[in-house]
Amino acid sequence: MRVVTIDGPAGAGKSTVARRLAERLSWRLLDTGAMYRAVTLAALRAGVDLESDQALGVLAENVAVELPPGKVLLNGEDVSALVRGVDVTRASRFVADSPHVRRRLVDWQRAFGRENDVIAEGRDQGTVVFPDAFRKFFLTASLEERARRRHAEFAQRGEAVALDVVLRDLEERDARDAARAIAPMKPARGARVIDTTGRALEEILDDMEADVRRGLVGQPAQEEDRREGPEWRR
Ligand code: C5P
């Protein structure tokens, strides 16, 4: 089936953009961060040693993570809200570093992509999981803007976290995501890099939708759009 990948750092606007683009195209959304979060929640609940790839691998083999439209299910339980919490967010980096977990989740992600036309959102979708994706995007924004967005998200959920703590967490997560030995976060070859700083959501969506639709009718996207991810961090 057809796959559009949207990768980039936390707070770049990927989730909203991916969800809305999937709605506009009537494609399925593959929120891969939610998968890592669900395994993280399972690990926290089971008291698994987060530093042990082996233990995390065994855990990942024994849990079921499903993404029916709009939900995250862990062994059939709706954990959509729970996986967005601060604790899961913090601990998720250990799970994201586990080669065993990554192998398992990549298999699930590819299976999902075989069955559906998907908007696949994450860090490694264009580079590792779907290198042959029909269209690839890499969304980014300034660190300050990303921290403000995440901070507002937490506040909306009633979780009081100081802005500078969110900013430092993000910075640390970016560094780890980019330096990871397997599947480091970087713009995929052929990905179009979009900086969302200060841009209106609808305008970005219109732009991306038009880009994808151009490709859908067999016309190659404009050449100047095919920039190969230069510097994206600020
Ligand atoms: O995007 P989100 O914040 O939901 O990601 C949750 C965690 O999973 C983060 O630690 C992120 O680095 C990791 N992740 C990943 N690969 C993906 C998607 C998310 O390592 N494809």
Structural features, described:
It is a single chain. By secondary structure, the chain is α/β, with parallel strands linked by helices. It has a single domain (3-203), classed as P-loop containing nucleotide triphosphate hydrolases (Rossmann fold), CATH 3.40.50.300. 50% of the residues lie in helices and 13% in strands. It is built from nine helices and eight strands. It has helices at 14-25, 32-46, 53-61, 86-96, 99-115, 125-129, 143-156, 163-179, 201-216; strands at 3-7, 28-31, 65-66, 73-74, 77-78, 118-122, 135-140, 192-195. Strands 2-6-1-7-8 form a five-stranded parallel beta sheet, with helices on both faces. A hairpin with a 2-residue loop joins strand 4 and strand 5. The protein is globular, with a radius of gyration of 17 Å. The structure holds cytidine-5'-monophosphate (C5P).
